[in-house]
Every structure is written in C-alpha cells, then in structure tokens.
Records
---
Amino acid sequence: MKLYEQVASTVKDRIDLGYYHEGDKLPSVRGLSQEHGVSISTVQEAYGLLMDDGVIESRPKSGYYVLKHQEIPELPATSSPVPEPLVVAQWQKLKHIIEEYHNQVSTKLSLALPDTETATLKPLIRLITELSRTETSRILNYESAVGSAELCHQIARLAVDSGCRLHPDEIIITIGCQEALSCSLRAVTEPGDIVVVDSPSFFGSVQAIKINGVKALEIPTHPETGISLEALEMAFEQWPIRAVLLTPTNNNPLGYSMPDKHKIRLLALLKRYDIPLIEDDIYGDLNYTLPRPRTIKSFDTEGRVILCSSFSKSVAPGLRIGWVAPGRYREHIMMVKYLSSLSTPPLTQMALAEFIAQGYYEKHLRKMRINYQRDRDAVIGWLKRDMPEGTRISYPQGGYLLWVELPNEIDTNELDRRARLESISIAPGTLFSASGKYKNFMRISCVNSANPAIEKAITTLGRLCKEMQAQIPLAEPV
Amino acid sequence: MKLYEQVASTVKDRIDLGYYHEGDKLPSVRGLSQEHGVSISTVQEAYGLLMDDGVIESRPKSGYYVLKHQEIPELPATSSPVPEPLVVAQWQKLKHIIEEYHNQVSTKLSLALPDTETATLKPLIRLITELSRTETSRILNYESAVGSAELCHQIARLAVDSGCRLHPDEIIITIGCQEALSCSLRAVTEPGDIVVVDSPSFFGSVQAIKINGVKALEIPTHPETGISLEALEMAFEQWPIRAVLLTPTNNNPLGYSMPDKHKIRLLALLKRYDIPLIEDDIYGDLNYTLPRPRTIKSFDTEGRVILCSSFSKSVAPGLRIGWVAPGRYREHIMMVKYLSSLSTPPLTQMALAEFIAQGYYEKHLRKMRINYQRDRDAVIGWLKRDMPEGTRISYPQGGYLLWVELPNEIDTNELDRRARLESISIAPGTLFSASGKYKNFMRISCVNSANPAIEKAITTLGRLCKEMQAQIPLAEPV
C-alpha cells in the first residue's frame, strides 16, 4: 500500500467508526500532513482518492467534508431481543413468502432478487450457451464433489479483495449460499445445541437452525456496527454456545457492516471461548465503495471461521452457485455436502468461472454497485416522503435491502396482507426473529428503482399505513 | 388393457414369480386358450408380444419357452447382516471413492455412471443450448421452490408407467436423488432413531442415515426377491423402527426387484406398524423389459410411501435433477428441501421437461435398456471366464450394476488397492454395509462393455484375485 493510500485508509476508518459524520469537516491538509509526518502533496493525493471513491467532497475555499449523500432519516434503534435461546418459529409465514414468488404479486418488494436484466450479464448467457455446445461430456457427468477446479481458483482469486488468502483446495462449491450455511450448521452443531445470531437475522439461517433441532440465541444488534460484543460476551459466559452465525458485512436485513475493529474483537472472543463462526458474506461484494470491507475470515489464522457466500445476490440466483471456505471443518462439511446433493451441476460452474476469469464479473459489479446505491437513495427518498411520521430506515453501505421500522401500531403482517391485494409484497419483520419480534418492521428490496412501479408501490404502502393508523377496516374483496 | 395384453401379463407374472424358469416350456396355445376362455389367436398375439419383449422364444415344432438368456452363474446367498441397529461406519472408504473420480483411474468400474456418450442424448444438449439463449430471464432467477411446473407435469405423466397416479403438485424437484433421500430422511427421523435398510445397501443412503445421527438396522436380503419380510416383521416387533429405506426395484447393489406380491405385503406390514417407507426408484425406469415393475408407491393409498427418484442414472448425473413424491410428508419435506438449497437450477429442469415432452426420453430409454442388458450379459460372461472358481454373481433385470461374491479369502479392499495400481477401480463390498460386512464382495458397473478396456479390466481383476489366492505379495511401486 502506498503512503497516500495509507493516509486515505486512516481517514476512511475514522469516518467509518463514527469520528466524523456525514457533512463533518475533515482535518486540514496541513494538519493531516503534520499528524502523519507526510508531505502536503501526499495528503492531497489521499483526499483525491477519497473523493474518487465518493467518500468525501471538497468545498471551495473551505476544505474537505464527509460527503453528505442526502438527509437520511433516523436509523432504527439497537435491537433488544429475548435474552434466552429459543426454538425458531415462523415457518408458516416463510412458506407463504416462498409460494408467493410464483404467484400473482407483481411488485415483489419482499424478495432479495438482484437485477438480472442488466446488459452486464449478457456474456454469462453467451458462455452458458457456448459451453453447453462444446463441453457436452462434462456437463452430463458428475462434477467433483468439491466443485470445479476452475471456479474454486477464481473464487480464491476474488477472495483477495476481502483480505483473504485462500487456496483453491480450501473451497467447496455448494447449491447457493443456503447449502453452504445448511451444511456448515449441520457440521458444527447437534440437536439441542445453541447458536448465536444477530437480531434481526436472515430467515434462511434461522430456519436452517430450527430444522437442525438447534436453538437460536438472538443478540442485540446496532444498525451500523452490528452485534453487541458486550452482549455476546455475556451470552458466552451464560450459555453453552456451540456456534455463532452472522452476516457481518452489508447485513440482511439490518444493513450494518461491522467495523474491522469489531470483527477483530469478535474473533478474539471466539478464540477465548473456543467457538466457531459461520460467516455469511453473501452481500460483501456488493459494497458500494472500494475496497470492499474485509471478511472476519481474513483475520482468522486458526481455521475457526467458516466463510459462506454465493453468486446469487451478486450475479444471478438461478445459477444456484455458492461456496464455503470451511477452515478446520473441511472434512465434515465436505461429507455433509456430498450426502446432501453429491455435487453441484457442472455447466453453470464452468460458465461462471469463465465469466470471472474474463473480467466480466468485476465489470458487472462496478455497474451494480452504482445502481444499487442509486436505488437505495431513491427508495429512501420515497419512504421519507410517503411513510408515516416516526418511520426509521436503515442506511446500508452495500446491497439492496432496507430495514424499515414503522410506528408501533402498524403490524406489518397486516400491512403485507393489505399490500398483496394491491399486488405488492413486503417481507414482514416477524420473519427475521426466532421469537416473532419486529411486528412493526419490514424488509423491502430497492432493486430497479428506475421502474415506476417501485415508487408507486412505496406510495401505496404509505397510504395503507395511514389507513391502518386511522383504523380503516380492510374492504372485503368483492 | 386389451385381452391379449391381459393374457401376456398373466404369463409374465407367472414367470416373474418363478412358476416358470428360464428354459421352461410354457403352456400350449390351446391349453392357455382353454384356461382363459379366449381364442387361439388371442393367445398367439399374447405370445407374440412376449417374444417382442424378449421374455419368451418360440422353438419350431416344439412350442414356447421362457427365453434362456445365458447360462448364468450361481447367485449370491441371502445376506445375513448383524441383527441390531448400528451406527454406520465406512465414511473414509467412501471419501476415497469420491476423490478417485477425478483422479487418474482410467477404468472406473466402481462408479454407477450411465452411458452419456449415446446419440440419444443429443436432443437434450440441443435443448439446453436453445433454452439458454431464449429463456434468459428464467434461467437467471429462482425457480419455484418445489420445481418447474412443466417438469413436475412430465414426471407425473411418466409415473403412470410404474402404476402411479401422481398429481404434478405432489412432486418436489430436488438436486438429484441424493437430496430427495436426504430430505426425506431428515423429515421423518430424529437423531437416535432406527431406520431399516436392506443388506447390502446403497452407500449414499446409509451414509445419509449416519449424518442424521440415526442408526441403521440391516435386514437379510435375497438376491432375487429382496428384503426378507419375515425378518422385517421380527424387526418391527423387536425395535422401535422409525422408517424403512429401500430400493425395491433393480436394487443397487444386489440387483433384486421385489415381486409385486412382496411389495403389497411390505406395504401391509408398514400400515400395521404405522411406519413410513422411503422408496428409492432410481433404477426403476432402466428395467430391461416392459412394462417396468410397479413402485410400492403405486399400491399406496395413504400417502405412507415417500417415492424418491432422479434422472441421474436414466439420463445424465450432471443434470443433478431428482424428485420426490412425498405423500403425507409433503409439508415437512418441502421445508427441508427449501432450507437445504432453496430451489433447483431452472435451465436443466426446463430442458429435461422438453426432452421428455418431445418423446426423446422414451426413445433414449428404449436404446439404453437393450444396451445395458447386453452389457450385463457380456460382463457376466467375462466374470465367469476370468474370476476364481466359486464366484457368484447377481443377475439384475435392469440397470447396469453387478454384485459379485468372490471366494472368502479375497478381501476386496485389497483387490481395489491392487486394481488401482493398474488404473482400474471397483467398489469394495464393505461400503455397502453399516457394519463393514461383505469383505469378499464387490460392486462393478458394466456400462459400455463394447469398450475393450472393460473386458481387459475384468481379465486383470481375475488375475489379481488369483495372485491374492496364491498369496503373492503386492510388488512395491518402483
């Protein structure tokens, strides 16, 4: 890392840790040059880099400021879940969401689907078509149980961006991130165990915990910095925790990214209590700014962290390609994967490996990062305009999901029911908790805000909320 | 069913049940006509049909005889496994087999891979290529969690051939049969439970039992009629059995198909003790003669049978497409499937649905049935010629796997080790038992016997057996 990059990185860290907020004035060029013992031009280069990355702005005759993206609404408060391990409920609700997918709802804000209409995916389609013609023998036969060697190689190469040094042999390809998480959970837990999760937490993880006969202990979680390490340590003291399962970067649904310092402290805690971490990094590559945040895995020297990810959110879910870097649990996770599905289909693995190798993946990501940041800002703007007073909204730095806290009296299960009658779906907050908390929260996707249906849907949701507040009964369907 | 088909079916049943053996003379045309009260020409048509199906032959001036395929060697004896539930071992050995697949072994008799070089699969490749171009939006997005509607429809249609009336909505598409079996097991068992299996038994099933924390109880099994129903009933009396897991048709590895009467009796037993059956029908469509045997599911009126299958053996394993008809366990199995891998990739589902709809599947099967029967006969001939005296060989009526019992003194783990040095692999018998029995057995594939490497490999195996019998030590690699 060059000197000016180091300086830029330090300033960026301070912004991330909250020393400087949006709109705050940054130290003068002279001040920073003295602090770091570097030249004026080095500081100027550092500030230039941060401007390129969209982190800061220069105001003429005044200095440098943390870029104010927009007037953002208040964030949801740190969560306060039930402080004991629970059997996860909510399957019926989730089933409802799954089944809806192929039903009549036209604006599915409930689902975390990436933009698959983008031109940057055309080369992927071309590769699938080509390889289906030229690699017939391979696509008809079993791929290696651990996955295609080329794809493992490309994933190891990409992992460098998150600070990880992985050998291709350390990677196992799975059917999406869900299989990676499911196999990891099965490998490190037994029925009756307790697993720690953040709160709110991704429903696919908490339900996978449930069907393993494992209980979930939810930990208070801050919408910017993530899981409370103090609460986590208390939990480690109090309960026989078997594993921790987190999405520490561009979290679903809350949007937080744990600062590196928290990630390092978490790892130290895990080491002290000898507990493995299942790290879900599925939205990591969709960070709006570069370099993308480091994975906790990247700080791990003991093989304690099981890193799970996929291309379902960054490329396309229909590929069903995920992966796990299982650390010291490789043998067991490989066995579970083999006995769950033998191996992952070869055609899409080969096409994706080529897509990455030929540079299309990075090109695609560049466009998606810009689009999704724009989508976030647009949808937040509409929510501010249309939702009832007191609404709080998460402010993610990557991905395309918003976590919205509505006034107490609004039950989002009822909101969802009313919305569906207008062909709109949301993901009700209760889905994201083992205990069915978050009754007045919802998760919505903001992908493709350029489509007028999205703005219209937000306006409709706002109207429905106000009808609910005014206790206007739902008209019976004619 | 027409009259002559009814008569043919009755004669076929009697042959299947063992009233007439190979080479036996069948009733005269006149005799049969009197017995059934049908015309002479109806019986002639019936015998004509059976000749077309390769079941019987006509000898000039003598009459009709059950076709003698060849002088077949003695079958292995009914198995006598350990009569108590066991934790399944043998994972290390299985891992060895899995890893070998992409290693240097050139003649892999160990693996159950179908012929994927056949011209009858060309339309499938063409469909994959075409659909990848025309259905881009669909292939990049999640398919319904239960699978593509078109494919479910085609599977329901095909199921009629095995006597099943399934509604497309009763079917869930999975990642191969392994995911179908794995999800079914997870849905009906809990750790500590006991599941009944045949013996020998497919290693993918017994290992899936193991990682669920369930114990396997192996039941004595006959190489022609399958699991002993008397022993099964005793087991039901003696142990708290949670489920039965069987491949009752063209069994892997033993090759048996349970006669319909046994299938019906088994179902009655299951009903009496209120136990579900997981029926693996993966080789059912590869029965050499038509109509293919009925599934146990086809006799089930209560939703007690969970029918699992896939296109991995009948079409191509690289598609990774299987399915389950979960009966009364639909809700739970759908949940487990969703939380294991969310959904199955859409492209191959769509292509396979079209492949079946356009009649290519049935055309492909017609060719494969003939080829695999020819392969079976060729490989049995070479085994008879080359293997030590006392060798017994299974005589499957479908599929492409042989179960070979060698003289007691031959340990097939050692045989496999020696064979690998000559670039040949076999599946050692111990893989097929929870307790590591069948030390002097092996399973071999007989696919593609037209390739001279197969005959050569059998000759090599024969030589290695004789060297082992003569206690010639293995030469150390130079």
---
Amino acid sequence: MIIALDGMGGDFAPQEPVKGAVEAVKEYGVSIILTGPKEVLEEELKKYEYDPEKIEILDAREVITLNESPVLGIRRKKDSSLRRAMDLVKEGKADAVVSAGSTGAILAGGLLVIGRIKGVDRAALAALMPGKNGPFMVIDLGANAEVKPSNLVEFAKMGTAYFESLKGIKNPKVGLINIGGEEEKGNELTKAAYQLLKAEEGIHFVGNVEPREITDGDVEILVCDGFTGNVVLKMYEGVVKNLMSMIKGAMMSTTRGKIGGALVKPSLKEFMRKNDYKEEGGASLLGVDGIVIKAHGTSDARAFKNAIRQAKNFYDRDYLEKFKGNLK
Amino acid sequence: MIIALDGMGGDFAPQEPVKGAVEAVKEYGVSIILTGPKEVLEEELKKYEYDPEKIEILDAREVITLNESPVLGIRRKKDSSLRRAMDLVKEGKADAVVSAGSTGAILAGGLLVIGRIKGVDRAALAALMPGKNGPFMVIDLGANAEVKPSNLVEFAKMGTAYFESLKGIKNPKVGLINIGGEEEKGNELTKAAYQLLKAEEGIHFVGNVEPREITDGDVEILVCDGFTGNVVLKMYEGVVKNLMSMIKGAMMSTTRGKIGGALVKPSLKEFMRKNDYKEEGGASLLGVDGIVIKAHGTSDARAFKNAIRQAKNFYDRDYLEKFKGNLK
C-alpha cells in the first residue's frame, strides 16, 4: 500500500510528519510518498535510518496557508504539498492521503481533486472518540455547516460501513443527535431526518440521542449536521481539558490533596493516554472516492503514525467497496 | 417579595419544593405561595416549623404531565399547579414564579400566561454555568429550536442586562458560539448574526467563541440558537459526569491509585459541590414580562432554595427594568 503524506501540513511540519512516516514504514510496512519542498524533506529524512525503497519524495513548492480560501488554494496552488498528495490518489499512484493541513483545504481537495463517490450528495468528516463504554463516531464533524435531512441518512450509511468493515461490528447502532428523546423533538432538520432514518433499511437506527448521553459510548454512530458535530467535538475537547486542569487545581489546594494527587498521577496519565485522540489517528473524510485522513493540526510523530495506520485499515478492510455496496 | 412556587413540579415534588420553601423563607425572608393540592401540601408543611404568615397555599387540583402538549396543558389545565403559579404573577399577586416542571410547560406558561415584554420577539432560556475562570451564561438553552439572526441580538441584550443588574458587571463580553474564529465562518445563521452583533451598540461583542473555549469562562455571555445551546449544556453535563466516573475507575484500578483516591476525595467533593448547578439555582426564562425561574427537574430542597434566591435577586436588582431600558 502507498500513502501520500502531506509533508508540510500541521503545526509541526515538516519534522513530525517526516518522523511519523519513518516510524510508520517500520511498523506497518507501508510505502510513503512525502510531498513538499524536496531539499527540506531530504534534510529531515537524513536524521533517520529507513528503507529508501519505502519512502519517496515528491517535490512540491507551494503551501496552502490558513489565511486563504481553501477552494482557491486547492485550485490554484497546483504545486502545493496537499494538492500534490491529492493528485497522487486521483491518478492512482497512491492509495490514501494523510494530511494535518487545514480542514477546509483537505475537504476542498477531497471534493475537487478526488471527487465524491457516485450517488453521494455530501462528503462528511467523521472521527472515533473515546466514550465511557466504548468508542463512538460523530458524523459530520464540520464539513457541512448546513445539510438536508437526507444527508443524515447518507452519513448513517457511511458510519455503518465504517463499523462493519473497520471494526467488524455488524449492525452498529445509529443515533440522531437531538435535544429531546421523543420523535417529535428538535429543529426542522432533526424532525425530518428522524422520519427518514426510521424508514431506512440497512441501518440500525435507535432514535434520538441527547448530548448528555453521547459520551456514554453506547451508540456507535451519531449523525448530525456539521455545525452540531463540530460543537460536540469541541465541547468534548474543551470540557476535558478544563476539567482536568480544574481537578488538578482542586487537589493542589490542600496538603492531603497534594499527596493524593501524586499517588493518582500515574493512573490519570494512563487514563489520559488511553483517551487521547492521537491514539485513534485522525478524522476521515467519508463519501469521497478515495481514502482521506485528516490528522489533528497539532499532530506529533505518533499521531501521524496512527493516522497512517488508520489509512491502512481503511485500505486493508476495503471500506470503500463496503460503503459503495451499502449505498445500493 | 412574594414568590409563586409550583408545589408539584419536579421529580421530587411535593416533598422537596415544600422543604425548599420552608428553608428559603427562613433564610431570605421572602413570602411564598405554594400551588398544588391543598391537603397534600398541608401534609408536607406539617413536618416543619415556619412562619405561617410567610407561606400560603393556593389550591390547584391538576398537574401538567410530561406526556401532553405543553401548550395545550397550560391552556386547558387552568387548575394545574403551574398555571396557577403563572396566573399569580400575571395578576400581580406574586412577583416571580419558580417551578421544576417541564421546560416546555414553563416556556408555554411564560409566553401564554405572562407574555413577552413589548418589543421582544423571542423569549429565551439562560443559565449561568461554572467555567474555569468564572461563570458564563449561555442563551438560548432550548426555548427556540430555530431562530432568526436578529433574535441573537435580543439574547445578547438580555444577557447584558443580566450581568449588569444581577452581577454588577459593566459591559459584560458577548460571544457568538460558532465553529470557527473568523468572521466568515459558520452556518447561515451565525454568519448573519455576526454582522448584526458587530453593528449593535450597547453590547460588548467580542466575536466568535469556539466551543472549545466556552467553558474557559472568559466570555460572560454566549449567544446561540436553542438547539446549539441545548447541545452545549447537555454535552457539558454529560462529559463532566462521564469523565468523573472514568477518572474514578482509572484510579481504582491500582492499589496506589486507590490510596491516592481516598486522599483526594475531599478535594474532589468540594470541587463538585462548588461546580454544582444546584448552587446557581435554575435557568431563567428571559424576555417575558415577569420573573420565571425553571429549576432542574431533579432539584432537591437546596436547589429549590437557590432558585428562590435567584428569583429574589432578579427582583431586588430590578432586572426587568434594566432589560427594558436596554431594549430602547
């Protein structure tokens, strides 16, 4: 399997994507094409020992910045590291793209360069997150600020194919993120989507899921518009971050708490490690006719390595074919 | 000050509202009219010593259940405990309503019985929540699943009046909950609302606030549609609940962690107490021409007492006049 890795995407490029590539090659046996300025990437690669047959550089002289329109960036900067990586998949020279570039640019690249799967109206961003009783997936995390009710059915099918092919879970549960448990609750979108989801065969729709229950992890797939999904994702991140810091502060305010804090530290560290998004890899752009993984902007080498593993899983478990089958 | 307290609202009625009323009378010197079946409330009141001049019962034989339409419930069940309480405010016989009944019924009661303030298009639910650096308020928490951009400006004014009158904070910061920091980010609602908020005088608009930063508590007032606000509120509750339980589980998995856990327990308990929604009272229905406090459905006596204190604050600090002034 060949992975096109955007060597210039993310806050810590090119160091971390390059290091992640070297580690992934060793660990997973994949081949990687790194895109970016040749001399910069070569300089980084020199730091490591690796099988030169497994890592190749594709020169790309431009970078799409956060300040420009993602669509124009992808269209005009044909020699950017992200566009080059997308082209590799489009041309069949690579099997997946991994990038920690901006969500907007990756979305634009997926849609404009690789293109949607025939029959799919909207592509969507999805990611697994740690829940109390197991991981769960929210679709869409922000690719579509506005959607039609029927798009949520598409998202449910994408998620179902994901759990069936990648996790080996048959008939994963699908929930609709809503602000009430009853069928008639919610806004116009969720009310209409509820009826469509209920009528849809081939998915295991369990009804509305209130945000209080999302992180229980009892429902595998949670569908919503991209605005709501982004709120869910970022609330989760923000509350965990602040709560951990507030708990630390509370413990440190007494001597007894300080001693106890020192004792529980290893457990908490292990807990945070297990529940770290970096372990899961990145978000997947589902609905496009190729494997596109968006790693977190702050990804380190480990996160890149895990995003590459994730791309490999999509490939090995034949996600695309599974989803195309579910569409019919 | 006279408070109309729905004696039959909430999961633990009539015991907890009655107990909360007795405590509030002692602590805050308010007078309370309890609404509900006379003999039931009298039986409860018998358990306590209290000043009989300060607590009165208004007989009400009906209860609006969770299974009926809130609007029909309020309209038809004229002898329900909630409707009676709302009537008392409408007729000027009480200065505020406190109820732990269903959000829908309280909203319907506020709108249909008490009515909106002249010039206000939408009433909204708001509540203070604990943030890392201070409390923050989200408006709307779920009264309006769909809103117009101009409604968010109204919400900003309600919140500003709240912080100015109740908290004595001049020019509190107003943020728009959005899925990106930049002006042009978001869905159609937030893009249009951003421009209106920016142009509005008399509020201190600081731009978009991403959900990751909401619980920092650096921005006092966060405006959004009721669907989004409800997602924010319930994600916050759910993540805190699950995270605390997951952290506990992680600590209990090793002997060292168990010992440390025992030591940090008092600090964590104190932390949870300080950050308990029950301390703040309830959610306020803003924009109606009266003081309406919705206590949490699971309220105990302490939560009712705090909701009554909150109603008293609205009254003492002249919130309604302040907000009407800001409207002009």
---
Amino acid sequence: MDERASLPKRVIMITGASGFTGGHACRYFAGLGMEVAGIVRQSKTLPAIDGVRYYCCDLMDKRRVEELVRAIAPDYVLHLGGKNSVPESWTNPLLYMETNVLPTLYLLNALRPLPACRVLVAGTKAVFRLTPPYRPPHPYSLSKSLQKAAVMSWSELFGQAIMLAEPSNLIGPGPSTGFCALLGRHIAAAERGEATGAFRISSRATRRDFLDVRDAVRAYGMMLEQGTPGGIYSVSSGKEHTLEEIATLFIHAAGTPVAVDWGSDEDSAKDEARQNAPGSGVPGWEPVIPLMTSISDILQYFRTGGGASI
Amino acid sequence: MDERASLPKRVIMITGASGFTGGHACRYFAGLGMEVAGIVRQSKTLPAIDGVRYYCCDLMDKRRVEELVRAIAPDYVLHLGGKNSVPESWTNPLLYMETNVLPTLYLLNALRPLPACRVLVAGTKAVFRLTPPYRPPHPYSLSKSLQKAAVMSWSELFGQAIMLAEPSNLIGPGPSTGFCALLGRHIAAAERGEATGAFRISSRATRRDFLDVRDAVRAYGMMLEQGTPGGIYSVSSGKEHTLEEIATLFIHAAGTPVAVDWGSDEDSAKDEARQNAPGSGVPGWEPVIPLMTSISDILQYFRTGGGASI
C-alpha cells in the first residue's frame, strides 16, 4: 500500500501555513521535494524549512490573493486557512462567516485561470445539514457548512478540480488548541513544577475520533494526487476513544501526578452522535502513527518549550 | 379576508429601497401610516414619499450598518437589498457572493440588541438544495441558496424573529429588469416609433408564475405581522403562464404591431421544473391584482417615461 503521496516535483501553495496542520503540511510536501509556497496572514517568525518560501497575505484581500496566485502559479493548493475555535465563534460570529467563507471563494476564483490546478479545502466533520429545519450547533459549524456548500457548488459551476477533506480531531506536536494539546501543555507545566491546579474535563464519556496530524497530511497529499474533483473525503482514524481513556494515557505518560476535575456527563450523548466518524474515504490510505506516539510527541513538544521544533 | 397588513404605527427599515420591489414597499408601508426608513446604497434622486426617509448605506460596511440600526431602532425590517441578475452573476460571481450573503448577516447581527424586531428577508424560488450532489444552476442561485441557509441558521442560533419570503417572478410598474419589464419597454419604444426590431423570446413554452409586486408587498406586510420566526413562505400567484401567453397579452394591449423572434424550446422543461410554484404559504393572503392590470400598468409606466411615477 502506498504510504506517501508521489506528487511530481511541482509547486504547492499552502494557506494557513503558520497553523498547526499548516506547519506539518509545509514540512511534508517540502520533504517530497516539492516547492512549497506557505501563505501566512501576518509576518512573524516562522520555521526555516528547505523548499518552503513564505508569503504574507490576508485572504480577505481579494486583489492580493489574485496577485499571489499569479506569482506562484501553483500546481496544487491546500487551503488550510481559516478560524476554528467554537467558543470564539460564539463571541464573534461575523468574524467566522467572514474568514471561513468568502476568502475560500476568493482563492478559488483566482485559480480559475489555472484549470489544471488541483485544490484541496480542509473542512471539518462538525458540519450540519443545510436543509430545513436548520439546526447549527454553533457559529463555527455554520461557517464551515456554508464553506462546504460554497466550495462544492463552485467546483460544479466552474469545472475546477476541487476536493474537500473532512478530518476528525487532529492531534500531534505543534501549536494546536485542541483537547490533547491543552492537556499536554498542562502536564508539561506540572512537570516543571508550575502550579496549575486540576485539569478540567467537561465529560469523561464523550467519545471522539483522534487522528495524528501527520497521518492526515499524508492523506491530503494522496487526495491532491488521486482525488476525484467534487469529492468529499472523510479523514479519520476510524477509532473512537473517550476523553477518560485519552486522559488516562496522558497521565500514565506524565512524569508527575496530574489531577483531573471531571465535569458532568450530561452533554456526552450529543457529542457522541456528532463525532461518530465513518472511517476513511481515501483509497490506499490508512493511519500508521499509533495513538501513544502522538501523545508522547505532544508531551515532548510542550516539554521542550512548545514551538522550538515539530 | 384581511387584505392589508395592520401593523401598528411603528418604524420599518427597508433595504434596497430604490429597487423595483423596494419602491413599492416604501409606498405601501408609508400608506399604512408607518415610519419608513428606506436604505439605499448610493445617494441619488429618489421619489419623495410622505412618511419615507432615506438613508445612504453600503450594507457591505459593517460598522455603518450597526450605526444605522442603532439610529433607526426599527420594529420591522424588510431586507430587499442585494443583486438579482443571473447573467451578471456569471460575469462577476464573487460580487454576488459578497453582496447577497455577508451584508445580510451584518444586518441580522446589528439587530441582535433589538430582540423584538421582526425581520423578513426576500429570497427567491431560484434556490437549489445545498446537499450532495451540489448542482447550482448559476452563481446567483448559489448566492441566494447560501443566503437562505445562513439566514435560517442565524435565526436558530440567536433566537431572532427572522422569516424568509420566496417570491415567484414579480411584475408590475417600476424599474424591474424581468421579462415583462423588458417586453413592456420594448412595446412602449415601438409605440413611440423608435426602431427596435423584433423582441427575442428564448422559448415560447417556458412556464412561469408571475405575481404583481404590489400583491407580494402586501404579503410581506402580513408575514412581518403574523409570520412564524424561522418560517419560509412561498409567495406566488399559484398560476403558471407560458411566455407565449404573456407575450400575446402584451401584444394585444400594444397600440402598434410588435414582432417577436421566438427561440428554440429546448430548455423549457428545465425552466418548468424550476418555476413550478407551490402556491401561497401566507395564511389569509391571496393575490388580488389581475394579470391584465399588471400588464396595463407596466405599459403605462414605460409609456410615461419609466420612472416618473409608480
């Protein structure tokens, strides 16, 4: 079974390059010998990676997106840019609608003069059905559901080679803001003797599908290479774990006792239904990184200061 | 049966006030004794109507929308603003996504501090299902389908009293760009002896539901008064006519012979399916303006210069 994508040495444009998945994607595709154009919103210190060149661009700026696409002339685009915090989406719902929908279309429109370019947009499993009755769980879900419908429809309208990935919860070393990263950071702080109190987990029975981000990035490469235009691909480990199971694994790997403040189980059924992932939809791909490796790497990332290297 | 809405004398904000439906809506609600705040994008010559005050605002300007809503403090909002030309949407699809989706959410977000405010958004029957396989007929339909999903979801997320109207083809005197207006303008030009050639109609068998805009505006008033939050209301005459039938009625009403260049019938089945309106969903409302009155009024509008009065 092919474990790595074998894209020819060509140009890939990656948006959200300074993010958690973006960092891994830049390393992975540069490692395949491709020229990587990493798009970041703000100029900041970024890891120097052979084969990766960074470009600064706010994707809300339609003209700049057009200029950039013309200058880079990518063969592949991996669109990871956007916002993905559920709590923040309640505080500023408009920001989520602005960031996750229109900039994606600006990018797709700018790519119309390059019909051979293959595009993968990173969606999420946290979408809902855009038919009556409309029951969005949160504004983040609404923004990503609208993005999905917009992207798939755009692909149909203009005949571009656009695919959508729907990953489950991605974990691994790097600047994630997910459950495992928060727990890893907490444990690393406790190991350094910093007073942190108990780690709060809202519901021990909540089940989630966790997948290592490096497995996901490999799947993205295979989709860019082999995916069917207009295709929607699920990317998940196919295995669910309760938060209690995950926390137990982390606590066993910790070098110091860690207290957990368990919340009520009330919302777990809701979470369960939403997170029940249907396995992988990428032909020839399967996850290879064991859960314990992800957990060790997360702890190592935060033990070494979080950001020095991924 | 109640033929007019009986909204108490309060403040209604109407976007797209300089448009075809907007002009009729301003007159109608002012005629009910309400204070009408008509929102127009650009300052231009607008009809002076007792009870109507115009405000200039580009709905893409989020801050200005917030200021305006605070200043007007509406009890009702009728959102008619947006773009609605299918051919233009092919030429500039991004403009349609920008104009029809985000500004609607800017408006709804600005209204969150006014939970008693009742809002009606004007949609269209030309929407498609935002589920796989995604088959938008044109970018205009995509923009309005995304608007519909966004509006209905927003209503659910934030508990605002928002309703959606899905009107059929609105006709009547005024600056419309629809089939009947184009034919009416052509006939008026022919009557003035201006050389215009034959009027081209793509398919004589295409069936459409035409409704007088003044009947529609009355339905909007009843929805604003009595509609259920989250409700989607069809507003149509319930009667379909072929373009040939409509053209024949116009030609009979013309004061001079008018030539028609009939196109092929190839696309008529598609149109038929899309335009097959399910009648009215507004309790207590039914259309009262006969088709011949609409046609006479359209001809009269263009005979008198188009714009002098509606």
